[in-house]
Amino acid sequence: MDYEELEAKEVYAMYGAAMYFAQCFERQLAITLSTVCLSDPDLVTRDQYDALLGKHFKKTLGQLLHKMKEGSEINDEIKGEIEEALQLRNFLAHNYFWERAVQHNNPIGRQRMIHELNQACTVFQSIDSKVEAITVEWGKKRGVTETDYAKALAKLLKPE
Question: What's the CA gap between 139 and 148, in Å, rounded?
């Protein structure tokens, strides 16, 4: 395999990583909407919470953002960062390779793409961490420890 092929594979791998982190962020936003954005969380049963979480997991990132804007404890700065992450995710999902076709055909362009996709990973990881921190802090105020949160998250990630 020559260097060009390896470089192209690295572009695809970084694209996959960026989309992975975008999906992690999307799921975290759904979890946050199912907790932080509840009008009265003390009145929600476990079954109602599970149903709400399932409903939010079916929404697109744009729909989740719209739902979040309807009213939540999330500040405007974070909402702005979420909006930017949504725009980046949509660009990657719908236009990225079309708009980077010329760059993909030369070594300098591929290196720029790798760098750009690495930055996208950082953006998604950063906003994911911020949204998760909001959820964890919200839980702490209600007696949910970080250990409890980690266990609940592990349960969500467990294969069926």
Answer: 9
Domain span including residue 53: 3-157
CB 49 within 8 A of CB 32: no
Q: Which stretches within 34-106 are classed as H helix?
A: 46-57, 61-69, 76-94, 96-99, 101-104
CA 132, 133, 134: angle at the middle one, nearest 5?
Answer: 90
Share of the chain above pLDDT 70, in %: 91
Tokens of 45: 């049963």
> In Å, what is the CA distance from 101 to each residue of 2, 29, 93, 98, 118?
20, 32, 14, 5, 18
Helices (H) and strands (E) in the chain, counts: 8, 0
Mean pLDDT of the chain: 89
| pLDDT band of 72, cuts 50, 70, 90 | low
Type of residue found at 59? K
Total domains in the fold of the chain:
1
Provide the pLDDT for residue 122: 99
